[in-house]
Amino acid sequence: MTVLQQVSADRMKIIMFFPFLLLVCSVSADQTETAVQQSSKQNIHAVLRELTASLAVQKQWITVLQRENQEQAANLESQKTEIDQLKQQLQVKQVAFSVGLRDQDSGHTGPFNTATTLIFKRVITNIGNAYNPHTGIFTAPVRGAYHFELHIVGAGDTTMAVSVHKNQSDILIAQSIFKSGAHGASNGASLLLEIGDQVYVKLSENSNIFDGLGFHTTFSGHLIFTM
């Protein structure tokens, strides 16, 4: 075989092999592309799983933080209330009042069909303004020990019976029954009061008492010490 014939034969082999090479390359490219796509999908799914897990953890942390914030807010509110109470106790160092039953005249009060809260209208002393002359009620501004005294007077054929109340409870009673002349009764007690506790006097049913410009019937109280 001549050199020219050998070259021609080689060219024919190359021409015949080239389509086969293109087919192999095409198949290989398709397989590579498919593999890449599958790998990309797997990576995307993996990333999505990680994001989902991360979001779940973040939600848990957010719930925990919200709960802690609520607890801290409640603690701050409680501390603020305690601080306000302490401030009030520091500010209110002296509390004392003394009041007469009638304001500018003399006369009897009662009798009534039911027990009635007495409104001592004539204010002699009201240091701290804890006594309300419009309701007859003393309201404790601070926690502490307080002392109260009650003095009542009757005249003529009268039955006197009054009681000192702490909130809804009877604490002490002063009473007297006379057929003629003037007569009186007194009583007193020291009480432990919380902030907001109320102390007042009630006239018992079918009783009457007397008061005049000389302060015959009085109700008094004062703070002994805070606690």
Query: How would you classify the helix and strand content by structural class?
Result: alpha+beta
The helix fraction, in percent, is 25-40%
Mind summarizing the main beta sheet?
6 strands, antiparallel
Strand content: 35-45%
Secondary structure: number of strands = 13
The general outline is rod-shaped
Alpha-carbon distance between the two ends: 128 Å
Q: Structurally, how many domains make up the residues?
A: 2
Which architecture of the largest domain per CATH? Answer: Sandwich
User: Element order, helices and strands?
Assistant: HEEEEEEEEEEEEE
Overall residue-averaged pLDDT value: 80
Whole-angstrom Rg: 48 Å
Low-confidence stretches: none
Number of helical segments with 4 or more residues:
1
Concise overview:
The protein is α+β, with helices and mostly antiparallel strands. The protein has one helix at about 5-90, and strands spanning about 95-100, 105-110, 115, 120-125, 130, 135-140, 145-155, 160-165, 170-180, 180-195, 200-205, 210, 220-225. The strands form three sheets. Strands 3, 5, 6, 8, 9 and 11 form a six-stranded antiparallel sheet that branches. A five-stranded antiparallel sheet has the order 4-1-13-7-10, with no helix packed on it.
